[in-house]
Amino acid sequence: MWQINPCCPGTKYPIGDARKEKVAEVLARVSKMEVFQRLNEGDPWRMGESLGVTEEAARARTRELENVCLYCDAFLGAFAGV
């Protein structure tokens, strides 16, 4: 599999392409981003704070979608390239 995913293998938006980049380089790049720091800390509802998405808004959207992984996909789709 070529997709480098931010968390689970089913993530809709990969953070890199292992055919074109070294995994270590991708991880070094995203490790500096607040979005992925919060995700790495196990706090997906706070990953958007640096972009103006409050934890309350994230939890509300998660309730609407009925799944935190779907929230991650929606969030990463809206803020791709962050």
What are its keywords?
2 strands, two-stranded antiparallel ribbon, single chain, mainly alpha, 82 residues, 4 helices
Structural class: mainly alpha
Strand/helix succession = EEHHHH
The structural domain count equals 1
Which stretches of 5+ consecutive residues score pLDDT under 50?
none
**How would you sum up the global shape?**
globular
How confident is the prediction overall: mean pLDDT?
A: 90
Portion of residues in beta strands equals under 5%
Helix content: 40-55%
Biggest sheet statistics = 2 strands, antiparallel
Give the neighbour order of strands across the main sheet. 1-2
Distance from first to last alpha carbon: 23 Å
* Helix segment tally: 4
Number of strands: 2
Any overview of this molecule?
With 82 residues, this protein is mainly alpha-helical. It has one domain. It has helices spanning 23-30, 34-40, 55-65, 68-78, and strands spanning 3-4, 16-17. It has a two-stranded antiparallel ribbon with strand order 1-2. Helix 3 crosses helix 4 (68-78). The chain is globular, with a radius of gyration of 13 Å. The two termini are 23 Å apart.
